[in-house]
Amino acid sequence: MSDVTAERAIPDTPPAEENYLTAGTSLASWLLTTDHKRVALLYMATITVFFFLGGAAAVMMRIELVTPQGDLLSDDAYNRAFTFHGVVMVWFFLIPSIPNILGNFLLPLMIGAKDLAFPRLNLLSWYIFVIAGILAIYTLLAGGVDTGWTFYTPLSTAFANGQVLAAAAAVFVAGFSTIATSVNFIATVHLLRAPGLTWLRLPLFVWAIYATSIVMVLATPVLAMVLLLIFAERAFGIPIFDPLRGGDPILFQHLFWFYSHPAVYIMILPSFGVISELVTCFARRRVFGYNFMVYAILWIALVGFLVWGHHMFVSGQSMLANLVFSFLSFVVAVPSAIKVFNWTSTLYRGQIVFDAAMIYALGFIGLFTIGGLTGLFLASVPVDVHVTDTYFVVAHFHYIMVGGAVSALYGGLTFWWPKITGRMHPESWARFAAILMFFGFGFTFFPMFIMGFLGMPRRYHIYAPEYQIWHVLASAGAVLLAVAYLLPMGYFGWSLFRGRRATANPWGATGLEWQTSSPPPKENFFAPPVVLQGPYNYHPEHAGPPSLEREPHEPQGGPTERAP
Predict the structure, then answer these.
(1) 276 pLDDT band (50/70/90 cuts)?
(2) What distance in Å separates the CA atoms of residue 553 and residue 537, rounded to the nearest whole number?
(3) Cα angle vertex 186, ends 124, 127, to 5°?
(4) Which entry of 144, 236, 246, 397 is 20 to 30 Å from 415 by CA?
(5) Nearest 5°: phi and psi at 526?
(6) In angstroms, rounded to a whole number, what is the distance separating the alpha carbons of residues 488 and 485?
(7) How far apart are alpha carbons 536 and 466 in whole angstroms?
(8) In this model, does residue 540 exceed pLDDT 90?
(9) Which architecture does CATH list for 3-12+25-562?
(10) 528/113 Cα distance (integer angstroms)
(11) Domain extents in the chain
(12) Model pTM?
């Protein structure tokens, strides 16, 4: 069967009983589902709640920082606000967002599988995540924590106020959800690929989720171990980190950052996969240097475990250790640079379509490039000593983690929204939100580079008056950023009821997920696909801009066949 005939055998709008959204409409059918697509939507709802809870804490801080004096929040309340913001945004939004939402929904579709390898484990991981989130909310309602999201000792074990153990328990429990999901993804990629879908025919999004899952499985137990040590010292007085009783507080930093620097790549690697899919589709060109992109993803996952010490240049470690970690930090920047170069080369001479998803992707590249280049400043020991614990670090972290990850998440949701819901969103509003997010983010966080270089310490809410102008600019930018974050909630919600029905492949893309109906049937495909060629076969003769109703040139990897 030819690729055209195979595609047209799939109805654009399947019968209601074949739609995964209408397979069961009761609350129990959702709460007890083992369908990876429904579990992804459960994660989407939960993670969205935490995103706005963490964002509310950020709003409180930005309002407080408009003036040099503590007008709104007390010292203790401010400490608890930035701790809650950090804990929620890192462990309940940034780490799970793309893997648990887009990864859950798309991974089986992209490899031609009916579901994940362990569907019940997938649902269980969501319930564990919900329990962890309830513990996190409890810490806020019970008074909060004032340690910061890093839980540094001996502050967290001897001197901190608030619900330290409850907050640590929330992160500890969330780790079980992370590991369960990661094991599921790894097994799925190894065992359930469609016939003909070899390793070097996998979409880059699948490679990114696979590499992220490996990092999660290897790194998360280290975090669990260090949280248990905090519990042992704080609850039972076992001398582990307390220097007055022979403990070593620097040991905590080594253990924490051995997990937390790979966690940076847990947050950003899935974004690389999303952006790769968007750039190649809307440039109508095959990804430049596909093999190098794969190797760069794996390189980041490996070398990311070797650079934790660059967070500790001022902790008292030896100068030799500082130089080694500085060198490795520059080395790990190379694969990230390869990715930016390859995305740019993919865009070169492409028939670029500036739809909203592509604007999000271009915004990601801009924000990630700024964040990555400023990371090289922090990898240099002399510069890092100067800007350690200043707003320069805050700006760098947010450009990479928040600017990059959120742009990729919104870009991915915009791109795959027709596949998830079967409805088209209003393109003009989505473009406006994408542009506003890029500029709002710049106005919010770029001033922090300047004030950090000038010496403004982070985590202070009472500061010298000469920094006020920069804080006012940042707070004004945060208003724009908040609008950009809220807009998609409006137009996505509108599309569910008023949006035009989507065809199977509204963007003219080549992935396997676009070779089934929108939204997909419960078991993803009407007939199992067979892949015959590599990914991203956008040919020059088909390079024109796709219309919203355009059918694909060739499916994932070129022509596919349907197994009988």
Answers:
(1) very high
(2) 8
(3) 10
(4) 397
(5) -75, -25
(6) 7
(7) 52
(8) no
(9) Up-down Bundle (1.20)
(10) 8
(11) 3-12+25-562
(12) 0.91
